[in-house]
Design a protein that fits this description.
heterodimer, A: alpha/beta, 7 helices, 25% strand, globular, B: alpha/beta, nine-stranded mixed beta sheet, two-stranded antiparallel sheet, 11 strands, elongated
């Protein structure tokens, strides 16, 4: 009996799929992600990358100038995140309904059983990440973690959404729904073609 | 010296900040009065709707400065400050900001964007200040808004304060009535905002208060939170010690890596340590950083570590 090939899954793929139900052009955007087409980063993404670079520099010992536009959020976040490991790349093999899957993710920060993900959002609203698949995905990547916190800034203030493990649903539920969607929309073969491991 | 060992930590005096939100008539004020030794900052005439047998002391203020003065006077007398409602307190803060800071007013007399920034900062400052001396309960009215086909129970408060008010809160719940029973929902859902922590999660039923019953639901809940905190600290203490030891030993091993030939042995030594929490993953991340510094990479073809060419 031939065994199904192992397929990679990332939080950005699952997140892109979730936007299918929220945005008018979400489906087209999801197809580009599924086909692994490179997209130019948006201005918001570039802001986020720039912010995280400054934060990581400060965590690695650099001083932030007192007149820096992000002095307050960087100082507050650096205090919370000091001593953590940054950009931790992780893989984990799991199986959902007999399908071998490779979970793959990069944690922004990891320390003493806690995971943080840094977000730069100019228009943050409460519970913005409540249904984000990143939460169950990263908690599945680190089964020994106690909780997952989104640490968010709009460039001025710092906000947090903390999700203790006990209130986060299992990633298998999301993956099951995702696979059902792919099969219903005849996208399974495309997925296997582009996300197969090895 | 202020370093305390987990076993010596005492959470019996920890002050708690809680948000309770609900539609009018769900009994928010009466519930909030069940916290220990309450002073109610009554900006919404909420006390008038409370059964007289459950009433507690109240500060009836008309300006933000009066609120601050009454809070100052409450130090050492009360254990809990209830703000009823926080939406109304924010309106007081807006008035205060416009009177005391020219940046808070627009030229046409309206409230400026900078003004909202002033309120955010003041709310966070006030919460931090209150927590030093009191438990704090922020009450919010809710209204129902339609998001697609779903109902969302939204806090009644000026927009930007809606987000910042959750930051200092330890826990928060949506109070609602279903089939004649009252519940606090501590886990956020698509229908309402909430904050779960210290083992308080999901739906918690609030028992009906009958004549003569003590109104002490939140006093017991706060006691439970402190118990949970102490239990969690105690159960995690051995893991944290093992975590620290494993990371410290791993760092020493990582420092010995100079050449590709050192990597496998270092990896084996790290994996052989007794790990706890996320120490193994963090130790491997430390090793990866070391390899990057030393220009060592894994060569898939030879399945060995080599110097980067």
């Amino acid at each position: 009996m031939s065994r199904s090939p192992k397929i990679r899954i990332t939080q950005s793929l699952l997140s892109s799929w979730q936007w299918v139900f929220k945005l008018d052009d979400g489906y087209e955007d999801f197809l580009r992600t599924l086909n692994r087409e490179k997209k130019p980063p948006t201005e918001a993404m570039l802001d986020g990358i720039r912010f995280e670079n400054v934060l990581n520099s400060v965590l690695n010992g650099e001083q932030i100038p007192p007149d820096h536009e992000w002095l307050f959020p960087i100082t507050e976040m650096a205090e919370e995140l000091k001593g953590s490991q940054q950009q931790v790349t992780l893989f984990r093999d799991i199986e959902v309904d007999g399908q071998p899957i490779l979970l793959h993710g990069v944690l922004d920060y990891l320390r003493e059983g806690h995971i943080w993900d840094c977000k730069f959002s100019k228009r943050y609203h409460l519970n913005k990440y409540l249904d984000s698949p990143q939460t169950p995905m990263y908690l599945a990547l680190v089964p020994e973690a106690l909780d997952f916190t989104y640490i968010i800034t709009d460039g001025k203030y710092v906000y947090r959404e903390r999700y203790p493990r006990e209130i986060v649903p299992d990633i298998n539920n999301t993956i099951n729904q995702f696979y059902r969607f792919l099969k219903q929309h005849d996208l399974w073969e495309t997925y296997v073609e582009h996300w197969r491991v090895g | 010296m202020a370093i305390t060992k987990p076993a010596e930590m005492n959470f019996s005096g920890k002050n708690i900040i809680m948000i309770i939100s609900g539609l009018p008539g769900t009994g928010k004020t009466t519930l909030a009065l069940s916290a220990p030794d309450v002073l109610l900052i009554d900006t919404d005439e909420g006390m008038a709707r409370v059964n007289p047998s459950h009433r507690k002391d109240a500060s009836i203020c008309k300006t933000y400065e009066e609120v601050l003065a009454d809070v100052k006077a409450a130090e050492g007398v009360y254990k809990t400050i209830v703000v009823d409602t926080t939406g109304a307190l924010i309106e007081y803060m807006k008035d205060w900001a416009m009177r005391t800071d020219p940046k808070a007013s627009k030229k046409d007399g309206g409230f400026s964007l900078q003004g909202y920034g002033i309120i955010k900062s003041e709310f966070i400052r006030l919460s931090a200040e209150l927590r030093k001396k009191f438990n704090v309960i922020y009450l919010f009215h809710e209204n129902m808004t339609k998001v697609n086909e779903d109902i969302f129970y939204d806090l009644v408060v000026e927009g930007s304060a809606k987000v910042c008010c959750w930051q200092p809160a330890d826990i928060g719940a949506h109070l609602f009535i279903q089939n004649g029973k009252r519940y606090l929902g501590f886990t956020p859902t698509e229908q309402y905002s909430a904050k779960s922590a210290y083992g308080i999660k999901g739906l918690v039923e609030v028992p009906e208060l009958k004549d003569g019953d003590p109104n002490d639901f939140l006093t017991k809940l706060f006691g439970k939170i402190r118990q949970n905190l102490a239990a969690e600290s105690e159960s995690l203490a051995p893991q944290k010690k093992q975590y620290q030891d494993a990371l410290s030993d791993s760092a020493k091993i990582v420092d010995t890596v100079e050449e590709p030939a050192d990597v496998q042995e270092a990896l084996r030594a790290i994996e052989a340590l007794p790990h706890a929490l996320t120490s193994l993953k963090e130790a491997k991340a430390l090793l990866k950083k070391r390899l990057d510094e030393k220009g060592i990479v894994y060569d898939k073809a030879t399945k060995a570590y080599v110097k980067k060419s």
